Task: structure prediction
Amino acid sequence: MKMKQFIFYILLFVSCAGIAQVKFEAQASREKLGVNERLRVDFTMNQDGDNFNPPDFRGFKVIGGPNQSISQSFVNGKRSFQKKYSYFLQPNGRGNFNIGQATIEIEGQTYKTPPVAVEVTAAVDKPTDGSNPEIIAADNIHLVAEISNRTPYLNEGIAVKYKLYFSPQINIRQWYPKDNPKYADFWSQNIDIKQLNVKEDLYRGDPYQYVVIRETVLYPQKTGKLTIEPLVLSVPVSVPSDRRDIFGRRLSETVDQTVSSNHQTIDVKSLPAAGKPANFTGAVGSFNFNVTNSKDVLDATESLQIKLQVSGNGNLKLFQLPKLNVPASLEIYEPEHQEQVSTNLNGMHGRITDSYTLVPQLKGKYPINPVSFSYFDPRSESYKTITSKEILLNVENGPTTTTTAPVASSGKESSTKQAVASASSQFKYIQLDANLKPIDQPAFFKSVAFWSALVTPLLLIPIGIFTGKKRKSLIADAAGNTSKKADKLARKYLSEAKNSLGDQKKFYEALERALHNYLKAKLSIKTGEMSKDKVKTLLAERSVQPATTTSFIEILESCELARYTPTSNVEMQKDYDKAKKTISELDKQL
Result:
């Protein structure tokens, strides 16, 4: 009986200890303050969680936050973790207030903080927080994400402009990305900002300065309400302090401030079903369509090119061009696809082209049927179709095909009979008169050619044996061959990046392009599917090792980070070596 009680208490203790492992608490910087003072509230957890929801802060105005900070340490083999969301509040008036409950999800469980009671009194003569550098920094710096269109159509481009506002009371010189948005369910492209310009504007009615730190173009790939994740920055802020130097000038104090833009929600509309053309392939924007041919008159077996080209502004990389249909007597090859597309805040603009090579086999006249291209115009909210003109090819010289002539029958039905070709036309291209002449044949036996033909096969036997053994050894070295092929493919895609080492912008653009081209070639995926989440899913489906996938994603993130922060030649060389190794590993596993 005592043993059962002992086991019961042990299990109870273990379960209670497991429950006590998760801590989610709220703490205010003070319980009592004047109406002219400010309050800081921290929501702290000892395990990482998701879907944090703050209270409504009734009775207060949020003047700063949320500022997010994460710290972790290892002491005597034990890991400690702390994640904190901080808000700076200003009272709206006097009274007793309760700061409500915040919620967080940790390992599928929802945790809540207890309410925090705060008393707000009349204004005090000397506010104690007036010189708090963290509160000053939080009150004077803000990150705002501006959306060009919150109700776009599917595959219609929108622009996101991130503005960092700061008041004249503080100074900032640089910032570092702390958490970049993933842009799930979007095709995204960051726009390079060549020069940062500081401008002046009003923020919530007060004079501020601001700088546009990032511009991104998004094309939604799903309909409905989609969320744009916030951008989080770490900004060293120089704040005036109460200390002064020997000349009486006020000294500044630098604090690391974390600022983030808010979650943004857009409502993506479906393309209208009414009036949708049968040949519509998803083009959205404003386009022109042209079909051109390199020549109209040619001979049989002579080649020509026909180009199908779409130009304009829209989702140029996210749809397929129509196909070219030609008569059976024209041999047609797979088209060569070319993209000359650039991206700015107005979206993609440029042109895409499919170039077909055609080779006629017989003499005659061949009409190329008109080609139609359909797209959706968001400005007029309607579908438009552009149809090319018919192309007539005249093949002048070459073999001809037999012709058929209809012969009417006595009844309602009719039959056709094939015309019989005459002997002169049937054998027109066969040389009937060979005009052969006899020649003197020298004796072959015991000649130089005779002995050469006799001895040469004997000499080739040891060469064949040596070559066979060498080939078997190469085939047996499967791992070595795989590695060589992987290295060859890596060199092919990374050669441009290697040539740009030392030039940060060109290097990382070439490196990112090499990674994308490699995956497109190996996995046969489209450019619109090149999101990080999609890449992880595709590599996992093909049993790629998680470590290799993680390394590939880290290189992509390094390319993104390098657009906004300077890096050294040593770091570029490390990224290049890591990319080459990762592509080789991917090639082996795929």
In short: The chain has four domains: 20-130, 135-268, 285-395, 478-589. The longest strand covers residues 60-75.
